[in-house]
Amino acid sequence: MDSNGKMDERSIYLRKMIIDSFKDAGKGHVGGSMSAIDIIRVLYDDIMRYRPKEPMWEGRDRFILSKGHSCFALYAILADKGFFPKEVLSTFSRQGSILGGHPERGKVPGIEASTGALGHGCSIGIGMALAAKMKKRDTKIFVMVGDGECNEGSVWEAALCASKHKLSNLKIIVDYNKVQSSGPTYDVLDLEPIADKWKSFGFNTLEINGHNLSEIRQSFQNHTESANQPTAVICHTIKGKGISFAENTAKWHYKRIKPGEIDKINAALEENR
Fold first, then answer.
1. How many Å apart are CA 47 and CA 220, to the nearest integer?
2. Which domains does the chain have, with CATH numbers?
3. In whole angstroms, what is the distance from residue 156 CA to residue 228 CA?
């Protein structure tokens, strides 16, 4: 998204890739995938080191999608980058497919952790960050959590641990779309003041527009790492971003998509040009 609120061709292309992949399955976590895709795109396009043909390369940076239900945003990126053929996306949720409703390490190339039970990704990321420090690698670890996921006490236990160990190579990304499965985050369990919470847990904290590509890029490229602190990047996003009738509504957290709805969704995405 640019300063005028328009999406570029790649943002629309990736969103259409996600939606088209739901055709056969007819279901999936649409809202959270749309709120997360721009952030994940920037990480893989501009920030992270990795080798699609050598997914277990030791020198790679790691990305953990702790909010595993939004996995199709990550699947689309991994397919686009060549971790597996794009044709595999159409097998989502079919018997025998490598692509399930939550990502599985060891089954899907490029997936660093099996996630789905919310609240675990931060702890896994801490282990990876500690290992990198101990082995004196300059590896960076990125963990994306959902705002609803931040209701989990395990997130904050992990935050205490990350701060204690001064994990400057760890970045927690909060997809703050403010709508979780059962309704607005404010009504379910209010997180505000969320920035102050992360700061109080010892994190170098910043807030950005999670759909503005320049802001996302700058937050990872130019933000000076503290030698003694992990970082929390609070990304203000929109649930269902790009699909006007799906934005900011819990109904589109998980959605069964009827055959006739695909064209309607793609038309809505075109309106963002």
1. 7
2. 9-270 (3.40.50.970)
3. 18
pTM of the model: 0.96
Look at residue 139 in the predicted model and tell me its pLDDT: 95
What's the CA angle centered on 132, arms 107 and 236, to 5 degrees?
Answer: 70
* Token digits of residue 77: 């990126």
For the CA atoms of 267, 25, 66, 210, what is the dihedral angle to 10 degrees? 0
Structure-token pair, residue 265? 């969704």
Q: 183-184 and 179-180: which strand pairing?
A: antiparallel
Per-residue confidence (pLDDT) for residue 271, from 0 to 100: 94
- Dump pLDDT digits (tens) for 143-184: 999 999 999 999 999 999 999 999 999 999 999 999 999 899
What is the 3-class SS of the chain, one letter each residue? Answer: CCCCCCCCHHHHHHHHHHHHHCCCCCEECHHHHHHHHHHHHHHHHHHCCCCCCCCCCCCCCEEEECCHHHHHHHHHHHHHHCCCCHHHHHHCCCCCCCCCCCCCCCCCCCCCCCCCCCCCHHHHHHHHHHHHHHCCCCCCEEEEEECCHHHCHHHHHHHHHHHHCCCCCEEEEEEECCEECCEEHHHHHCCCCHHHHHHHCCCEEEEEECCCHHHHHHHHHCCCCCCCCCEEEEEECCCCCCCHHHCCCHHHCCEECCCCHHHHHHHHHHCCC
| Backbone phi and psi for residue 170, each to the nearest 5 degrees, phi listed first | -110, 130
Q: Which two tokens stand for residue 95?
A: 């018997």
